[in-house]
Amino acid sequence: MAMRELRYFGDPVLKSVCDPVTSFDGKTEALVRDLLDSVQPEGRAGLAAPQIGVGLRVFSYDVGKATGYVINPEVVHVSEETREIGEGCLSVPELWFPTVRPDHVVVRGVDLRNEPIQVEGTEVLAQCLMHETDHLDGKLYLDRLTPERKKQALREARGKDWFWNR
Question: For Fe cation, which residues are the binding ones (predicted)?
Answer without folding.
Answer: 89, 131, 135
